[in-house]
Amino acid sequence: MELLDQRVAGEVKPPYEIKERTFEFGLMVVQLVNRLPNSLAGRELGRQLIQAGTSVGANVEEADAAESDRDFVHKVSIARKEARESRYWLRLLKESGVYQSEGTDYLVQEATELIKILSTIIKNKKNKLQ
Questions:
Q1: Is residue 19 scored above 90 in pLDDT?
Q2: For the segment 103-112, what is each residue's pLDDT rounded down to a tens digit?
Q3: What is the pLDDT of residue 73?
Q4: What pTM was computed for the model?
Q5: Does domain 3-9+16-129 have CATH number 1.20.1440.60?
Q6: How far is CA 124 from CA 49, 79, 121, 129, in A?
Q7: Who contacts 1 (Cβ-Cβ below 8 Å, separation ≥6)?
Q8: Where are the chain's structural domains?
């Protein structure tokens, strides 16, 4: 059983640590994209989603190796933007009827939670900079 299915079923909770959570988000996006129909819309929306969804964790990883606090904020801000974009593509998949599933609903909610978490990280770091 794939991680996405386990999360939807409530068998596995998201990790607390943001690097692992964003990695798992990317993994679940890959799993969902692999299920999309082989139609023009499925391929195009899947391509957009996989780029944005896997970029969230990649940018969090880059932030961990930031050269300064400002660089950290910048990279986490990019991760947040990619999470917002991922949520957009997921909603479009669902609302267009290209792909509707509990996995899509779960990932929309997970993207929303990641946006909130990343926003808090950015806010806290900016407050420390002032």
A1: yes
A2: 999 999 999 9
A3: 96
A4: 0.95
A5: yes
A6: 29, 16, 5, 9
A7: 11
A8: 3-9+16-129
